[in-house]
Amino acid sequence: MAALLLAAATSLAAASDKPIVFCADGSPEGFDPALWDSVVTSNATGQMFQGLVNWKRGTSELVPELATAWTVSPDARTFTFTLRQGVQFHTTPYFTPSRALNADDVLFTFRRMTDPKHPFTQAFPAVYVHAQSLGLADQLAGIDRVDAQTVRFRLNKPNINFLSYLAAPFAGIHSAEYADKLLREGRASAINNQPVGTGPWRFKSYRKDDVLRLQPHPAYWRGAPQPRALVFAISREPNVRVQKIARGECHIASPIRDVDIAALSGHPQVTILKTQALNISYLAFNLLKPPVNRREVREALDIAIDRNALFKVLFPRGDALQAVSAFPPAVPGYNTALRNEFDPARAKALLAQAGLGNGFEIDLWALPISRPTNPNGQLMAQMIQADWARIGVRARIVTYEWGEYLKRASNGEHFVYMSGWTSDVANADDFLSPNLSCANSKGGQRFCNAEFDALLEAARAETDVAKRNRLFERAQEIFKRERPWMTMAHSSIYIPLRKDLIGFTMAPNGSVDFEGVTRR
């Protein structure tokens, strides 16, 4: 019996020691989760950073993470968290922590995002994309250090959704001690390329557009066994990722396209996981640039697109849904009365009404990476270009490398650009507030409508579910009338993995979590 137990233990150790290679579809923009909101980046930072709360794996249920418990005041304005004891930050060649996680780390993490006068923000001025889009600075009345293991968030107004914000990647907790070290050394910006978190994986090395290497965190508080290495092999081309997983060069890959499923179906060593995700792809207008700053021009461009033809080409399996509103029909509060329209004749009349009867020229930005909701940005752009040509609009297709694409769009250089959003939870506010509220109108990307914002604010404070859903329905009517986006698709997500990968659970948003995942 002893010999059998020893053999089993040896086998388990050997299995957990095998490295895991993940075929990623793009390069992380950086490694500070507060600075970025793309899935590419959060897939990387999510292995290294953790929040106070998280989503239970594979579900939309909130569970404790760095906080063991919390209380919410009856008026949904005060949220108090008890921190987990003994959580250790990463030890790396560039930082050795002297203490465990405490309230100071939570205060640093959120104060630098919400206080422009914070010393770290002064030393490293940055745009905290997700916090800004949520209007977090305006929402917070204060963050208090109750004691070493207790933190209290006070809101200016009730927000029943606030707890779910803290499960988002941007809310990963940083080490205040590490931040102080960087400040003393005059290297505050290093927080973005030399990360220190509490997660099961710690940073080792990175080569842009090539490879990211992580290694296990030996003092990890949950103590889950980890392989000796986690490697992000960066492959932008979808067919390359398919070939690599078929050959066993990677063990799991970013979501694949509909057209790639046939190439892997029936492969004896590959499993394909599927979920109907809470996602959307869309084309966002720059609301500050003529002529797309005019509502009738945006409507004309939208109704000139033949979505039925586009879907037959881009989604041949037929399990993607045409997006009509700003979030999928599965989300409570969805407005079922809204419709898409395809009417080139009316589109031409709208342009004539706007004084553009002879058409105009415009840049159309094509997504440079493949997404489940937009598997081929170039092809989508070409089909839209042809549709717009029929109403006299001459579109120039433009694209950039992924990081440059995001940077230029954030700076407002676009007229129309392809984007998307995926949520962990079926909550209308998680789609509307980060993407369409006036809190993040930088660069002309975001919608800024006072009536729309007032409805969102009222919905956050409304405890009656039916009344809250009616507020969201009214907000969607404004969205559809003003058309800051041309909505495109809600899709299923397919993730391929080798059958020797053990313990991986697919997330509702298609993100990846490698804690406790091993190979046989």
Distance between the termini: 22 Å
Top-tier CATH class of the largest domain: Alpha Beta
Total number of helical segments? Answer: 18
Q: What is the radius of gyration computed over CA atoms, rounded to a whole number of angstroms?
A: 24 Å
The CATH superfamily of the largest domain is known as Dipeptide-binding Protein, Domain 3
CATH architecture of the largest domain: Roll
| Sequence of strands across the biggest β-sheet | 14-18-13-17-15-16
CATH fold-level topology of the largest domain: Dipeptide-binding Protein, domain 3
Supply the number of structural domains. Answer: 3
Q: Indicate the proportion of strand residues.
A: 15-25%
Count of DSSP strands: 21
The biggest sheet, with number of strands, parallel, antiparallel or mixed sense and barrel status, is:
6 strands, mixed
Helix content: 25-40%
Return residue spans where pLDDT drops below 50 for at least 5 consecutive residues. 1-15
User: Could you tell me the mean pLDDT?
Assistant: 93
Question: SS-based structural class?
Answer: alpha+beta
